[in-house]
Amino acid sequence: MSRKWLSLVVIIAATFAAGAGVVAARWMKQNAEPAPPAPEQTLLTVDSSSLDFGEVWETDKFDWAVPVTNRSANSVDISRWGSSCNCTAVQPSSLRLSPGETKTITVRLDLTQTLYYQQAAQPVAVSLLPIVAEQNSRRSWQLSGTVKPLLRKQPNLVFGPLSAAAQPLSPLQTALSFVQPIETVSVECDSPYVTAVVVPSRDDAVRSDVRVEFRFARTIPFGTHPFKLALRGTFSSPRSEYSTQLQGNVSVVTDVQAQPAEALFAARTVGETCEEEIRLISLTGRPFRIESLTPQGAGLTVQRVNDEPRFVVRQQIVEGSQTKNSVVAVVVVEGGKQALTVPVISTGVVPPPTARKGTEK
């Protein structure tokens, strides 16, 4: 073979080898296992022992200290704190940690929001998330512990509906049953319309049951007025302090009310007529008479039942959706007139075509 032909063969072989190498490289790139993601850098750490607050009594202001350490080589800015529960507040609300620095935050938990009234203690877990500027990490910590209820059952602190005609309202009492004997107890209500006092016991003996009397302002406006009742005191044995708060409300309405309070019709076929009997009563037993009944809404009629304080509401279902109509009742009471609105709520359902065809004759 001449030198010219030999050189040509070498060039062709080299070109083929280079092309094969490119193809092999592309095949290896397409079929290679993806590289494992870089491990997330742990910027902040806490000691696991600081995340367990143990067994505690129910309270609306439970404070727990958690030391937070910056393990990175850079300063870390925590702009705010996220939580799995709106029962959590953190101080300080924002924080800067230098490299290697440890600072302690105070987590305040309202454990009354996590508690369902049972006689047994209940486990509670709340997630805490530091929001770090310029970091996408969603690393969070979980605070956990066990909450013991103060009371054996949730007391009824819903007063009403109470008649405005009965104002000033007479005091009402309710019982609080603690899970163990108490030495002292105090109550405080945050409402301008309600005050609370502990009913004195007949003796000074240690007790578990307490009666609280609620006294009302001379005049309370119409409507529902929520309040919080704070409980504080000490248990007798072992001697320890407790504090919590309970939710309640007082509702004041006009004297004449409807029973039921509304005519509520479930899903009915469009074109159907349904009815409900409504009775009017005086919460205080005062005499009254119905002066007029006015239906307000399409397909709605109303009929008195003799001369009794009763009437029948008839609603023709005219739309394939929820309809909110009403009947306005004007009654004559001692000292004037009172207007009462009775809601009439219905939901129309259009039957499927096959069902309609099956009923056609």
TrEMBL record:
Keywords: Signal
Keyword Signal: yes
Residues in the signal sequence: 1-20
InterPro entries linked: DUF1573 (IPR011467), Ig-like_fold (IPR013783)
Any Pfam family matching the protein: DUF1573
Top-level taxon of origin: Bacteria
Name of this protein: : DUF1573
UniProt source species: Gemmata massiliana
